[in-house]
Amino acid sequence: MQKLKLYKLWLAAGVVQIFIIIYLSLTPGVPSMPGVHVDKLYHFLAYLVVTLWFVQLWQPRFHWVLLISFILLGVIMEIIQGGLSYRSFDFVDMLANACGVCSAVGLGRTRVAHLLASMECYVFVGTDGINR
User: Fold this and answer.
1) Taking 90 as the threshold, does the pLDDT of residue 124 lie above it?
2) pLDDT band per the 50, 70, 90 thresholds, residue 34
3) Can you give the residue ranges of every domain in the chain?
4) Distance CA 126, CA 66 (A)
5) Residue 31 has what pLDDT?
6) CA 43 to CA 34: how far, in whole Å?
7) Rounded (10°) CA dihedral 76, 82, 87, 88
8) How many CB atoms neighbour CB 40 within 10 A?
9) Average pLDDT over residues 28-46
10) How far apart are the first and last CA of the chain?
């Protein structure tokens, strides 16, 4: 794992992502269409993106902490939604969240886990190989 030059910026962006997930989970949602479950894809993608973001910031030996933490975030958000008058508890949403988290941790073992480092390399070195 490469040391990121913009680690604090990337960390702050990850924290913002967590707050966005919390906000979107607790704010009144848009009405769903019967028979259409696109929201499950949104759940999967949101937790995939935020977990994959942090997978790039943390050493691989700590990825299990991310796995547990983000799965718990998804479970807690659903439990809280169950207590809100304008939201509802949905076990399948929890499952979609957990699948996103597990997929991200799995992708953390591949080259995908180096996206932030690649962006930094592009910004600081550029495509022409000249340091900036």
Assistant:
1) no
2) low
3) 7-28+39-124
4) 31
5) 62
6) 17
7) 110
8) 16
9) 80
10) 22
What does the H/E/C string look like for the chain? CCCCCCHHHHHHHHHHHHHHHHHHHHCCCCCCCCCCCHHHHHHHHHHHHHHHHHHCCCCHHHHHHHHHHHHHHHHHHHHHHHCCCCCCCCHHHHHHHHHHHHHHHHHCCCHHHHHHHHHHHHHHCCCCCCCC
Each residue of 20-31: pLDDT tens digit?
A: 999 999 998 766
Coil, strand or helix at 65: helix
Of 92, 47, 42, which Cα lies nearest the Cα of 71? 47
> Considering the chain, what is the average pLDDT of its residues?
89
Which residues, at least 6 apart from 46, have a Cβ–Cβ distance to it below 8 Å? 21, 24, 97, 100
Q: Coil, helix or strand for 101?
A: helix
**Cα dihedral 11→98→49→34 (10° resolution):** -130
